[in-house]
Amino acid sequence: MTRKCELRMAQPMFDDLMAHLFPGDGDEHGAVIQAGLFQTPDGPVLTARTLVLAEAGKDWVPGNRGYRMMLARFVAQQARQCRDEKLVYLAVHNHGGRDAVAFSGVDLESHERGFPALLDLVEGLPVGSLVFAANAVAGDIWLPGGARLTVDRMVVVGPGRRVLTPAPDRRRTTAGARYDRQVRLFGATGQTILAGSRIAIVGLGGVGSLLAELLARLGVGSFVLVDPDRVQPSNLPRLVDATDRDAMTWMVAEGRPQWMRRLGAALATRKIDLAARVIRRANGNAHIERHFSSMEERPVVEALKTCDYIFMAADSHRARRLFNALAHQFLIPGIQLGTRIQADPETGAIINVHTAARLVTPTGGCLLCNQAVSPTRLREESMPKSMLAAQRYIDGDDASAPSVITLNALSASQAANDFLFYMTGLTSGDAFQGTIQARPLDRRVRLVEPRSDQHCPDCGPGSRLARGDFVPIPMVD
Amino acid sequence: MKAGVEAAIAALRDHYSPRPVHVFPTACGGAHVAIEDVPVGPPFAQATSWVGFFLSSACPEDDTYPFFFREDLSLADGRELMAPFHAKHSFPSGEAPGVPVRPAVMVSRRQRNTACWKQESPLLKLLAVLKWMSQR
């Protein structure tokens, strides 16, 4: 049986490819995509990393058997580069039509003739071919050893998400009375997309808790929840549905014996379980996968690789570092959320309050390029507490940061809306893709344009971008 | 040890060979490292010192600091060592079972260039600190 796989591509590459394949001349054109590859329980995913356009008359010429072909020299050059870079070689061409496409008999014969030799050339990597119509794609991927994959969908990751398939999905979509009011905004198809979507919330504190409530009520169908902590009394003003019982308040209160406080802390509800309770109450059909650990565990990473979107609501810079790598390496968009409350060190007066919602996509908002990950903070978070204390770096840094539910709500609602309109494809093509800072003391919103650094190890030309399982993951491997 | 820590140690051993490089792995994938007989430059009364530091499990993503030197490190001209030199420390700092403790002078130099992401290997960071020290 032929297995299926998914192809992911960032919007700018997709735009370049479509402009090349469909310039308006009604002719066939060719290109090569060099792609990363990673495995998930649902099947392999190809991540388009590099697009090489075949120049008509030079690389793309009249065929001996079919209408057009790529010259052997061009093919061999691209395949060798794939071998050296550990990427999958994908030959691309187009047919006419719009919403459905398939390989012709001549196409498939050319695969039979050419792919065995290409498999030898790339030394253990898959090779394949894609054929595009204006709104459809089909793929035939050959694996070493004789197995084959078909591409059953291609996800274009842009301001809005777009999905191309070999043929239109004719299944009827219904949403029912429960979602009637929101379906009036994004349609039954949008509701079906949400029900089929899988998201991760990393950090189920003040922001993550609100996200769980919002996303579950929207009708998101599958959740990955990650948090290593249990509910404490000081969390109760910010966690949705949390009670004194969840925090074991009476056992952990000051003045209780130490053994009782320790027991109470150990019996307190895990934050992932509290969030799961919130989600179930809102959407009993939701699938929930829980990880009572930090993000830096291999099972968590494997779960995150299966997600359509990641909400980074944890404070740690180690988690931010890992999230940024995953977003770029596996082309998974997401958003990092935070609140900053600055006090004057001398007077204690509050001088700045802002919340931030930073989009992190394969083409913008990289946390490394935008100074949202600090090597110093990475260091401090990676040292044992006794070492930090001995080196006198704490200086009050262990004091808990201020946190207020209404501020958390600002960034949580921004992030949930960003996800909603991305996932349903309704975000404008020219939507602002940077950081949105809400400044409630001034009743102002600030838009921060994202920067990018050519030398970035996550998003620059020589980076891990779209390399899939072929490169190590920081903090984990 | 994490792969990044092992790679950093290999680079340090390669650079400082044949000087002894002592490595004490930690439970979370990092390591305490001590290199013997490292030249510290003419500003100092001593020609060489051992250098100790901690490689965390985030290596090489994180900044490597502080570095520890022999406890009697002093300037040749008699001037007192000022911050970021800190006397009366020990290496390794904090709890490090099984690692011999040495009284030390601590030198804490953090990366200052925050305009862009800079991944600086522990070897490059150590060389940068030694160069900075030689210019005191």
Brief rundown of the structure:
The complex is a heterodimer of chains A (477) and B (136). Chain A has 477 residues and is of the alpha/beta class.
Given helix and strand content, the structural type of chain A is alpha/beta
What is the subunit arrangement here?
A: heterodimer
Low-confidence stretches of chain A: none
CATH class categorisation of the largest domain in chain A: Alpha Beta
Mean pLDDT of chain B: 88
Approximate shape of chain B: globular
Shape of chain A: elongated
Mean pLDDT of chain A: 93
| Strands of chain A, total number | 18
Remind me, CATH topology of the largest domain in chain A?
Answer: Rossmann fold
How many β strands of chain B by DSSP?
6
Overall helicity of chain B: 10-25%
CATH superfamily of the largest domain in chain A: NAD(P)-binding Rossmann-like Domain
Tell me roughly what share of residues is in helical segments of chain A: 25-40%
Number of helices of chain A: 14
The topology string of helices and strands of chain B comes to: HEEEEEEH
Helix and strand arrangement:
The complex is a heterodimer of chains A (477) and B (136).
Chain A: E1 3-10, H1 11-21, E2 30-40, E3 43-53, E4 60-62, E5 68-70, H2 72-85, E6 88-94, H3 105-122, E7 127-133, E8 136-142, E9 148-157, E10 161-164, H4 180-195, E11 198-202, H5 206-218, E12 222-226, H6 244-247, H7 249-252, H8 258-267, H9 271-282, E13 287-291, H10 298-304, E14 309-312, H11 317-329, E15 334-343, E16 350-360, H12 375-381, H13 385-390, H14 405-423, E17 435-439, E18 444-448
Parallel strand pairs in A: 1-3, 1-9, 6-7, 11-12, 11-14, 12-13, 14-15
Antiparallel strand pairs in A: 2-3, 2-6, 4-5, 7-8, 8-9, 9-10, 15-16, 16-17, 17-18
Helix pairs in contact in A: 5-9, 5-14
Chain B: H1 3-16, E1 21-25, E2 31-39, E3 48-55, E4 67-70, E5 85-91, E6 102-107, H2 122-134
